[in-house]
Amino acid sequence: MLSAQAGQEYTAIEKDYSDHENSLVYSRRFIFKMATQQDQNSVSNVRAQIIGTWELVSAEEHLTDGSKRPYQNLGLNGKGYLMYSSDGYMCAAGMNPDRLPWRDMNQPSDAEKLTAIEGFFAYCGRYEIDEANQAICHYPEVAWMPNYVGTRQVRPYTLDGELLTFSGKATNEPGVESWAITWRKMK
């Protein structure tokens, strides 16, 4: 049988152990909550940075021989806009401003129609930020190209002040190693 003093010491040790165990549990919960909050803040921070309208600066392909060229459908003077809204939707449109105007605006020839669409892109839909992989995923719901609708378009990104650059490795273009599209935030 324990003496009264030994019993009190045992109870005190048990309480200290219990307090220590609880503090570990609370510490773990706090650390998890902070880590989760940092992840959410990081995505929120990226979202806050991208919301708005961006103007196309450049769209280029890096070739396997080390040279660069502008995206062929946009040409040397490509023009475009990219918009992100706070409710999770985006829209992108771009064109080659050097396309020839149609001779008859109401009745373009088949060749004029083809040239017009070859020098243009546009799509809109939802977007998500994948902070872990530094990618913005676009989910087109409307698009100039029917096969784009319902797809997941992954855009690896870097943010540098007022510049947003999407870049990646080319997968289906012979002679093209990578690509980069740079946008400047409108003020």
Largest beta sheet, briefly? 8 strands, antiparallel, barrel
Question: Low-confidence stretches at least 5 residues in length (pLDDT < 50)?
Answer: 34-40
Helix vs. strand class = alpha+beta
Strand residue percentage: 35-45%
Strand order of the largest sheet: 1-3-4-5-6-7-8-9
- The overall strand count is 9
Number of helical runs? Answer: 2
Secondary structure: helix percent = 25-40%
Report mean pLDDT, rounded to a whole number. 86
Q: Compute the separation of the termini in Å.
A: 80 Å
CATH architecture of the largest domain: Beta Barrel
Give the count of structural domains: 2
**SSE pattern:** HEEEEHEEEEE
Description:
It is a single chain. 30% of the residues lie in helices and 39% in strands. The chain is built from two helices and nine strands. Strands 1-3-4-5-6-7-8-9 form an eight-stranded antiparallel barrel. It has 187 residues and is of the alpha+beta class. The chain has helices at residues 4-50, 110-118; strands spanning 52-63, 68-70, 79-84, 89-95, 120-130, 135-143, 153-160, 163-169, 176-185. It is elongated and about 105 Å long. The chain has two domains: 1-50; 51-185, Lipocalin (Beta Barrel).
